[in-house]
Amino acid sequence: MQVKVNKQDRKYEGDPQMPLMWYLRDELGLTGTKFGCGVGLCGACTVHVNGKAVRSCAMSMKDVAGQAVTTIEGLSPDGNHPIQKAWRAENVPQCGYCQPGQIMQGAALLIENKKPSDEEIKSTMAGNICRCGCYQRIFAAVKAASKEV
Amino acid sequence: MKSFKNTIIENVSRRDLLKGVVSAGGLVLAVQFLPRDAVAGQNAAAQYATGAGGMPGGAVWDPHVFVSIATDGTVSIITHRSEMGTGSRTSLPMAVADEMEADWSKVKIVQAPGDEQKYGNQDTDGSRSIRHFIQPMRACGAAARQMLEKAAAIAWSVPDTEVRAENHMVVHIPSGKKMGYGELAAAAAAMPTPELKRVTLKDPSEFRYIGKGNVQITDMRDITMGKAMYAQDLQMPGMVYAVVARPPVVGGKVKSFDAAAAMKVPGVLKVVQIPATPAPAKFAPKGGVAVVAKNTWAALRGREALNVTWIDGPNGDYDSDTFKAQMAANARKPGNVERNEGDVDKALAGAKKVIEREYYIPHGHHATMEPPAAVAKVAGGKAEVWACVQSPGGTRGDVAGAMGMKEADVTVNVTLLGGGFGRKSKCDFALEAALLSRDMGGTPVKVVWTREDDIQHGFYHSVSYQHVTAGLDANNKVVAWRHRSVSPSLMSNFMPDPKRESALELGLGLIDTPFDVPNLRLETGEAVSKTRIGWFRSVNNIPHAFAMQSMVAELAAELGRDPKDFLLEMIGPARIVDPRKTVTSELWNYGDPWETYPVDTGRLRRVVERAAKEAGWGRKLPAGHGMGIAVQRSFLTYVATVVEVAVDKDGTVSVPRVDTAIDAGFIVNPERVRSQVEGAAVMGLSIAKYTEITFKNGRVQQSNFGDYRVLRIGEGAMDVRTHIIANGIEVPSSGVGEPGVPPFAPAFTNAVFAATGKRIRNLPLGEQLSA
Lengths: 149, 771
Ligand code: FES
Ligand code: FES
Fold this sequence. Notes:
The structure holds two protein chains of two kinds.
Chain A: E1 2-5, E2 8-11, H1 20-27, E3 46-49, E4 52-55, H2 61-64, E5 68-70, H3 72-75, H4 82-89, H5 99-112, H6 118-125, H7 135-148
Parallel strand pairs in A: 1-5
Antiparallel strand pairs in A: 1-2, 3-4, 3-5
Helix pairs in contact in A: 4-7, 5-7
Chain B: H1 8-13, H2 15-23, H3 63-66, E1 67-69, E2 75-79, H4 88-99, E3 107-111, H5 116-119, H6 129-156, E4 163-166, E5 169-172, E6 178-180, H7 181-189, H8 220-225, E7 240-245, E8 253-256, H9 259-263, E9 268-274, E10 288-293, H10 296-306, E11 309-311, H11 320-331, E12 336-341, H12 344-349, E13 353-361, E14 373-379, E15 382-387, H13 392-403, E16 410-414, H14 428-439, E17 445-448, H15 451-456, E18 464-472, E19 478-486, H16 503-507, E20 519-525, H17 541-559, H18 563-571, E21 576-577, E22 599-600, H19 601-615, E23 625-634, E24 637-647, E25 653-663, H20 670-689, E26 695-696, E27 699-700, E28 720-724, H21 744-756
Parallel strand pairs in B: 2-3, 7-17, 15-16, 19-20, 25-28
Antiparallel strand pairs in B: 1-2, 4-5, 5-6, 7-10, 8-11, 9-10, 12-20, 13-18, 14-15, 14-17, 18-19, 21-22, 23-24, 24-25, 26-27
Helix pairs in contact in B: 4-6, 6-7, 13-14, 17-18, 17-21, 18-19, 20-21
């Protein structure tokens, strides 16, 4: 099957049931997509499929055949997407492990809804766990980025 | 020697060492870092003794170990502690850079492998990184600066007194001549390290970075671009992937499994049995059956096909409900007396009123966002490990032991840690990788723990039952305080189960009880350990603070007093409380000297007053809101928290605001202190509302974030205000990573009481308000 990852066409011939997350991480070495729970509960593995945020652990290769996947590595060539800049300005990360997933979720929200309300930010980001507890800064960064895009 | 002493836990478990601490006033452990007379006349106020020297590997400050300068001027600074989110990987090198007048934009941080002989103690635990290493790292940077200055003076043939290092250059003051650090690199590197007593630290007024909060964490860009590497992300040529089916009951063994079925899964390469280690097993793997495959997915499918059956062993009867009842029974019986002042029995007998309360805090689990993982390559008599370990030095010793190698033949490389919280101090996952790589003939093997593995095979925060009795006299003064703590000990990992809290655990916020009560007795009751108990961010401070700070609020309510005023009255006047005088057992002050870090009720009072003031204690609140306050000295730091809750009609509690005052001595990186306090509030709220690990038939009943619920965004603690008590450099820096956690849960339940009149004595809150 064919899949486009960060604008590049890829051929995949393995187990069609394999979650996209393991394909990205183990086969392509795109380890910015993190493994946190494997069952769609934490958001660490969030990527974009056709511009929409999905949990790559809960999507099989069969599901993404022919689709366009964007990972954190493909979000911005120089790492200066407004949301990445906001993240740095707000000093969001602690350990950093959940952060690519948070950023991908936040970026997808801003594609869909350029001016989300506070409640919309919280409800959209609620699928992404941060065990270090960076939530108030995550919220502030998404809000700040929404003023930039 | 080091391999036997590679954790503080083992260190303090040695009775003779503890006795030594008691008899010598706490200074035996401390091969003091920077003795007071070391830099006579120079910044003498900044010098104080810590327990750093008493840790395995002690403290090293030699710039030849930590600093190297390239000819282009790039300064590489080694960071020897593990980074799990506290920021120490940035903050300690930042202190070196500041003292050596290095320009931060030209600094590269290099992570040290595990080698405590060379780098000093690396056990990133106990909120010690800044506490133990700010002084050595300042001395390291200052010595490097002096070596650069000396090299320039020699090059120019001028007296040392005429040169001065300034922002990555050395200047000849009379002529204005300058030489960059790159140019001076080779000559400076050839200099001997100055004697410690000739090292001159900067005056704090000259700091560029220390205390400023103007340096961003070094991995910021990589993190936001998905480039930061954690152990779960490791890949190397030829590497294979493994997952392990582990016995669900601690001490259990494999009965049977179907290797052939696993081998049929495409991509599976090998099925390997890992032996179990009998207790006390320290950090040895639990044993089980590993499936090695070409990728993680194949390994996971192979494991599903294994169909392992188990022999459970004696812990197969572990049941959280039964255990709670046993602990309660033991908490109601007289226990071992650990600290005794006055005559509690007599005072209780003569009291006008006796109030008795019990508190229960269940097992908890770290659930770091990165589940444990490690890669190992064991070949040709050598082992190399890459892992997210908090204790690279200890891991090196443990791998050497497991492989029958000398430590010199073991390399432990440290990745970033996607959270630690104490879980990654235990290197069982790295040992699994080493065993499997050896079995695979030297192929690099990555052991991946899934979230289910993580939640079901952890080292759990200990379950605890606390029984507190207070006696009031005719004037409503508290004249008796008896606190009995019952909790299985984490020492059961290292020695035959002591069946009660050890000196280490008592030191975690019980033995230093600061209350101004004439008759005071602290006791421990019996509780056996039936799972792996581990230390979890702030450890026994969580149950101890929950009981003490809830009880104080309960007494205030009983007497119709303001909880904050009553708390201050319980603390009493500003003074030094010295448990050394009345402790009847061994004593532990976080491994540090009492002289440097006493129990100072003046500082305790100050954080209570500050948090209350900032929170607007007593202000009019909307209907359904309530405020609670709690304070705890932990990791030698004083933290008070005011939590405001809002309880809606169906009993859902949110936390609109948190005000935390923290006195952690001199603050090296205020920006990271704030992030730690914010994170501690989130973790504290998880503990207060949700997190609970329960056992049935010896098995953990939770498995993923569906049933082990942790706080999500928008569920409260989104407005955490951190109030840092400003201290000069002469006030010894103390812990920051953990101390924000303990006061949170009691401040929260005290607030719930204020809002609803319902007292929560069993954590977590769960559905208790809607029931
Ligand atoms: S790893 Fe996919 S949601 Fe947690
Ligand atoms: S920054 Fe550590 S889990 Fe979010």
